[in-house]
User: What shape does this take?
Amino acid sequence: IGRRSLHSLHESFPCVQSVWGCGRKGEREMGESGGPISGTTHTTRVVSYCFVEDRDENTPRTTIPPSQEFHASFLSRVLFSWIGQLIQLGSRRPLEENDVAELSPGDRAASTEEKFQGEWNREVKNSQREPSLVRALWSVHRHLFFLSVLFKLAHLVFVFSSPLLIRQILRFIENSEEPTGRGYMWVGILVFTASGQMIAQQQNFHLLIRIGMRVRSAAIAAVYRKALVLSNQARQSASTGSITNLMSIDSQKLQDFIAISHLLWATPIQIIVTVTLLFQLLGWPAFVGFLVMVVLIPTQTFFARRMGQFRKQNMQITDTRIKTLGEVLQGMKVIKFYAWEESFTDRITRIRTEELRKLVKIKILRALNLTVLHSSPVLVSLATFLAYSLSGNDLKASIVFPSLAYFNILRMPLTMLPNAINALADSKVSLRRIKNFLLLPELQGKECLSASEGKCVDVPPDVPPDVPVKISNGTFTWDTTLTTPTLRDITLEVHTGQLCMIIGRVGAGKSSILAALLKEMEHLDGSAALTGSIAYVAQTAWIQNAS
Assistant: This one.
């Protein structure tokens, strides 16, 4: 419902129209006077909050429309009707970039990365405990996660209510003396619980997917930022392939786990409550099905654990393959010159064959796991009803259908729990990999002007205003493990307007001096300062083709 519809409503009701025209100032004055129109004012404000889209009509249109969800009303957010306009447009013609609205402010990568980076920096600076990536992510997203927990609890309440209502309806059908109005009452409550179950479940999924998307974008941005400031020694252990895997694969595994993370605590609750209700309905035969379920769960856990081990091994092989491919592509000219194509092809093929072998094992275990998963609800219900019939009880409709509903409740968690356990194992591996990468040593920042024994000291160099470049007794190295530094006792001054050329043989350290000025080398001793802006043209080719 938009503002035009509300305006039509106001024209029909003068009292509402007067309230609408007063604005916030008028509402405040009427609220203070305590007049009879005060109740109408509050009612109108509630209706506006639930139905009116919070959009400023005076704001000029931009190329990309603003976030529809951010300005949507309460009811529109509950029912996700704010996306309907985009779906209708997509049904008429292919969507273009300008048709898709902007992200909400909290979903943008800059916002999520800034919040995460602040929490991660606090973790790193806290010397009393080891930095934890989980704590940093939890500090940023705990509020949305708690809200999703509330929706999940509401969903569980509605789920457990449905079989009870079905049993009451069947009892009403079996007993012809029941008043007709009671049957309508049970059906109405069932419709309400089904609607509440759907809304709570979709809101829970929406929040979890949003949290996962924010975690993934923050992880990608943090890895990218870290890759720009890695020290030369750290770059030797972090190849381009491994960094690419962190940004593409490991960040995605974190998002996948968050989407189904509630299953880890909700599934035991569903199993316990469902078995308890089945015991009240069937008696001791309910434990027969529970026993079958207990036997099947360790089998699924075993398959999940083995798949996690194979995935960990496969990730290492994937890193090796991507690293080798990158080296081959970078040195393609040399490989072609010496006719080494077959040798490197065989090497990459062997790595890929080993990777495929691990993938085949993972798929076989996954197939066995799915076989056990999809057969478990049938086996549980078959064993339960067989035990119930052998104990001398009659299978009535008021017993069978609620029991099948309870078994259907068990079906989803039993199917998804192993996936959640697999995702947990994968996310733990990914968290460890991302954490280890973020803890790698960095280049010394621009604020490190002076150094002594490899550590920054608070002694700024005495730099005249006409000397934009100055190094005083500077000692620098590419690798701190080497006993001999690359540059030792370097003193250099470049005055404003001066052209300075450094001449020397190959490997004398000409490029290293430039790298030292750019803080790309380890600063061991002396001082180095740069003032003003810098333009650096690297020795490697940087002019792109057809530019």
Q: What stands out?
A: The first strand starts at residue 450 and ends at 452. The beta strands are 450-452, 455-457, 469-477, 487-494, 522-530.
